[in-house]
Amino acid sequence: MDYILYVLIFIIGALFGSFFTLAVYRIPIRQDITHTRSYCPKCNHKLKFWDMIPIISYIFLGGKCRYCNERIRIRYLLLEVLSGIIFVVFGASIKLSIANIQYQTLVYFIFGILYIATIFIIAGIDKENVKIEKPVLLFGFICVGIYMIYLYIVENDTNMYRYVIYLILSCLLLLFSIGYLRKKGKDSYTTDILILIMFMLLFTYEVVCIYTVIITLIAIVIHSILNKLYISKNRFVKKIKMENEKIPVGFYLCISNITIMILINFIIF
Ligand SMILES: [Zn+2]
Fold it and tell me: Measured in angstroms, how far is the CA atom of residue 31 from the centroid of ligand 1?
């Protein structure tokens, strides 16, 4: 029985996956993500329903646009498969099963999926533009907020003070970022990274976040070393541009956070 459940979870993951690519592409250019129909970025032809079925459409169309034959990057297919796999692994990590389903586990799973979706979109945009999108973070905070209210009312969680502390800190950082840094025209990336960490603390707790930060620091060191090696090997290639290139810290935080959250779930569930 359970593998029907996991096939279903994989399909949901793949659907989310095709939404991630759309969100990562459209949010930074302030395009509508829910009402405007998907279109081919080359020929602008609106896509039909059967052009947008994750994975299957890609395979049947041979990785090309039906209307202009433009190649669709394999990245889209890989992202859809990958997010399907991650949703399945997340479900397995909390031992989701039809035979002994508990509503607490199911509710955690649903909010977990929303959390992973938020983190993925933040990671994708940060990797492309080195920018933390506040509207996406806001969506995440609302989801986690609803989950907190659920924990308080239904599961009588008494550890509410930590949520309150992180929420107050997030609001203060957000005020600082929007009210002060943006008005002064200063870079708010560091502050936005701190807000992202507060968001992670709310849903994945302190232990996961400590590991997340440690692994991110290691990733940043490796990133810088590789960057330096690349520059010294290609002395003549855009030297100035490479040196000024910012490191997508948010991207590394997001990837390590999701990995560690799932690993620790395997241990505690
Ligand atoms: Zn096209």
Answer: 19
